[in-house]
Amino acid sequence: MQQITDKVFYAGVNDRNKNLFEGLWPLPNGVSYNSYLIVDDKVCLVDTVEVDFFMAYIKNIQEVLGDRRIDYLVVNHMEPDHSGAIELIRKYYPEIQIVGNKKTFDMMRGFYGIEENRVEVKNGDTISLGEHTMRFVMTPMVHWPETMMTLLENTAENGQPTERILFSGDAFGCFGALNGGLVDSQINCSEFWLEMVRYYSNIVGKYGTPVQNALKKLAGVHLDYICSTHGPVWHENIARVTDMYDRMSRYETEEGLVICYGTMYGNTERAAEVIARAASEAGIKNIVMYNVSKTHHSYIIRDVFRYRGLIVGAPTYNTGLYHEMDVLLDELSNRDIKNHCLGWFGSYAWASKAVARIEEWNTNHLHFEPTGTPVEIKQSLDADTTAQCVALGKAMAERLKKQTL
Q1: Residue 241: CB partners within 8 Å, gap ≥ 6?
Q2: Could you tell me the residue range of the domain that residue 261 belongs to?
Q3: What pTM, to 2 d.p., does this model score?
């Protein structure tokens, strides 16, 4: 039994077996599916877990509740890694009332065929559990249309809340299983920070404006705990995680450069090395380099969200752009990333297409600020194209030093 406060308990599970989250994102350190119990005059379960973990999950619940019934199930988010156990929970607790919004129940009907024992709530509605009151905050498109958050308040005799816990759904979550401890004050959180950026940039990153809208609804509310559906419970680091979401959703970056390239025989890679060295000699300290065919794109996207500069390069392939670079540019354009500088280069053996294709991606989709002069390399680097690569790296460094875009 893991207790967060006097009335709030953790009932979630860890998944250390899945290789890819949503069939897409690598999970080198696993992932947690977080669910919570509020045990007051009435009992409320907040979100469930992926159905494959149901037996471990129901044992966690029963360890806390014993023979007590559950009065409410709050569904903050309908993705199946959080709603997948609803049907089985109803078999154990047939009188449970499911709390959600209209879009929640539209999806629930489609996923599970559930249409009874429902309590529909709107923004600002409340439900009393006894000493605690749940207040519902609608946060659509963070990152599905039905997403909402639940603010739990306990009230002192003077009517003022003495403690506030935010059950935030996927917001403020991150990849990584929980290794014993649950609350950030109990654990070393160092491994979670970059995994929060990777989680946000790949899953939530397209929805910066809805995230900003959600943060505005929470502005001025003092929070004692944030209980997300993935990763640690935030207590000591609440200011840090909310600031991270604020900055990422405004596409705020730091001075730094991502260089990613595709290469078949090493010629494009050698050009990338020249560009990186030139940018470093011009004063850029934060430089990361990725081979797009070796590194999973989720890590590249993570660092594009972190750093202001991006230089991409690839060979021409089948009279088009090297496949993995084409895929990466499509993934980046799908996230509506703003406030970035872009430089590019390419190589070819007998028909030049890569450089023109990258420019098309930027003109039609990315809309990043073009920086430096693109470099086109025929077969391999020579003195002229080496000098052009140096000039591209220096131009990017000079632009990044100017801070604002």
Answers
A1: 172, 196, 226, 234
A2: 254-401
A3: 0.94
